[in-house]
Amino acid sequence: MTTQTKCTLTLSGLFILELLPVPFTSIFSLYVIRTRPDWLPNLVERLYEGKEGNQLIQGEGHNSMRTRRKCTISLCFMILMDVITPFTIIMGLYITRRRPIWFKNVVIRLYADKLIEVGDDDVSETSNSQTVDHEALEKKYIALQQSNVDFAFKLAARTKNTS
Q: For a tag site, which of 16, 31, 96, 161 has the least CB within 10 Å?
């Protein structure tokens, strides 16, 4: 079974959950954008295999934090639209069946700081001399968590002010 068919069947199953008053798919999508799990780029890569006319952008030089903010704001609007009709499922089915290139570009920009392009010549070189600076990673993690908390407080304050 192809990845496209698996994704379509999964979204069809999620449509049943969307009949409940809680927009489960939008909330899960928001979770995926905020946490950026490692499986998403792999899934998108498998989904777009064999797609003709790929005009991809490079992830280098893009601010993944800004992309994450824009995606979060878009999903918040989609959650509001999900109250009326299951919009997120319809959008997910469109992306799965038509595979628009803009979605793959958004995922590349979202993971710009995580994805590292490695050429065939560099594979043996990087695998032997790879070192990890745990202190720098810990500082980045703390800064990311703090920015997530700050964003949540700002979004809550805006929502409170508009109510």
A: 161
Q: At what angle do helices 87-98 and 64-82 cross, to 10 degrees?
A: 130
Q: Say which residues have a Cβ less than 8 Å from residue 92's Cβ, sequence separation at least 6.
A: 7, 11, 14, 25
For the question of whether the overall pTM of this predicted structure is more than 0.70, the answer is no
Q: Distance (Å, rounded) from C-alpha 81 to C-alpha 78?
A: 5
C-alpha span between 105 and 57 (Å, rounded): 6
Distance CA 35, CA 133 (A): 21
- Sequence-distant (6+) residues with CB within 8 A of 154 are none
C-alpha 138/C-alpha 158 separation (Å) is 30
Run means of pLDDT, 10 residues per run, the chain, 163 residues: 89 83 83 91 90 62 83 87 81 91 90 64 42 78 85 83 73
The dihedral built from the CA positions of residue 151, 109, 102 and 25, taken in this order, carries a sign that is negative
Rounded to whole angstroms, the Cα distance separating 53 from 49 reads 11
Q: Provide CB contacts within 8 A for 101, sequence distance 6+.
A: 51, 53, 54, 55, 56
